[in-house]
């Protein structure tokens, strides 16, 4: 069983910058994209990417996941 973290539900509602720090600490091997909610993104899975979507207040709006 893998112990590599692939989602961060605990950061929903956090300031985006704080969430990026947490994801980067847990998974220094992934690239983190910070995007406003509703941004169009290219389809496809990337095991070395985590997208952090934030709302109008700058808080994380959805669980960041690898992909």
UniProtKB/TrEMBL annotation:
Residues forming coiled coils: none
Family the entry assigns: Belongs to the protease inhibitor I13 (potato type I serine protease inhibitor) family.
PANTHER family documented for this protein: PROTEIN, PUTATIVE, EXPRESSED-RELATED (PTHR33091), SUBTILISIN INHIBITOR 1 (PTHR33091:SF90)
UniProt source species: Brachypodium distachyon (Purple false brome)
Keyword Lipid metabolism assigned: no
Keyword Zinc assigned: no
BP GO annotations: response to wounding
Superkingdom to which the source organism belongs: Eukaryota
Alphabetized UniProt keyword annotations: Protease inhibitor, Serine protease inhibitor
Gene Ontology molecular function, alphabetical: serine-type endopeptidase inhibitor activity
Pfam family, one: potato_inhibit
Protein name as it appears in the record: Subtilisin inhibitor 1
Gene3D superfamilies: Trypsin Inhibitor V, subunit A (3.30.10.10)
């Amino acid at each position: 069983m893998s112990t590599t973290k692939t989602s961060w539900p605990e950061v929903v509602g956090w300031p985006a910058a704080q969430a990026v720090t947490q994801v980067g600490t847990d998974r220094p091997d992934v690239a983190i994209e910070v995007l406003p909610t509703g941004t169009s993104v290219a389809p496809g899975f990337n095991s070395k990417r985590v997208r952090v979507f934030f709302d109008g207040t700058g808080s994380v709006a959805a669980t960041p996941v690898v992909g």
